[in-house]
C-alpha cells in the first residue's frame, strides 16, 4: 500500500506553533517570520488537507475539531524529532541560554550562578538580558525566568517564588533617622517605584500603606521617583542609603542576608506577582535544562524563609 503524501514540513511547523500559542503573531515571533508568512503556511496546509484547522476571530484563533485532532500528534512528532536530532549530532560543549530581565539577572541569578557553573563546568551558559516585553529574545532561550501575575499557558512552568513587598533601608539610614515603626516613614526620604500594582491608580506604597493601616500617612510628593525601573534601581538606591524603599522580596534577599539592607518592620505584603521558571513543553526532560531547574528550585527554597517574615510582621487589626 503506497504511503500517504505528507504536507510540507514548514506548513506543519507553522500550524503547530500557532496551535500551541493560540496566536498567529506569537507563532511568528517564535519562528522568526512575519505573521503573514505563518498565515500563508496554515492556509496552504488547510488547502492540502481539505479541512479548516482554525476558527479565526478578530484577536484570537481557536482550533476546529480537525485541528484539535491533529495538534497533539504533530506537536509530539516535532518534540521527538528534536530529541533524536540532538542525540545524533556530534556532542560539542552543551549550551544553556537563560533569558530574564536585568533586575532578576543582577539581583538574584548572577550572585549565586557560580554554584551551578562549578558543578557543570562543561556547560556553556549564555545570559540573555532583555526588557520584559521582548518576546522575540525570550523565544530563543532554553529557559526563561518570568515575573508575572500568572504562569504562561503554553510553557512548562514551575513557580520559583511568590513575591512579597518589603520595606527596606540601609542600616546607616535607619540609625540616622531613628526609624523603628511604620509611623516614622512620615519623616524619612522615600524611594518611589511609580509602576502600578493593581490597575493604573494604586501604587506600591499606597497598597502597602492600606495593609499597614497608614492610609494617607506616606507623602510621595517629595519622594525620589523611579519610572518603570527595568534593573532594580530602587533596590540599589536603598542600599546606597538614599532613602527607604518598598522592594520585591526576591530582589532584596541577598542584600538582607549580608546586612546591606534591613527590613525594620512589616507588614510584608504579597504583590500578586510571582517568579516563574519556564521552558518549552517537553524540554524540561533534557539533561542540561533538568539540571538547571533542579538547581533553581534549591536556590529558591531559601526564599521560603520570607514567609516567616510575613507571618511575624503582619500588624494587628485596629
**Portion in beta strands:** 15-25%
Can you give the mean pLDDT?
85
- How much helix is in the residues? 40-55%
List low-confidence stretches: 131-138, 310-318
Q: What is the second-level CATH architecture of the largest domain?
A: 3-Layer(aba) Sandwich
Outline:
The chain is α/β, with parallel strands linked by helices.
Verbal overview:
The protein is α/β, with parallel strands linked by helices. It has two domains: 80 residues, Orthogonal Bundle (Arc Repressor Mutant, subunit A); 228 residues, D-Maltodextrin-Binding Protein, domain 2 (3-Layer(aba) Sandwich). It contains twelve helices and twelve strands. The strands form four sheets. The protein has a six-stranded mixed sheet with strand order 4-3-5-12-6-11, with helices on both faces. Strands 1-2 form a two-stranded antiparallel ribbon. A two-stranded parallel sheet has the order 7-10. β8 and β9 form a beta hairpin. α1 crosses α3, α1 crosses α4 and α5 packs across α10. It starts with 8 loop residues before the first helix and ends in a 5-residue tail after the last helix. The relative contact order is 0.13. The C terminus is likely disordered.
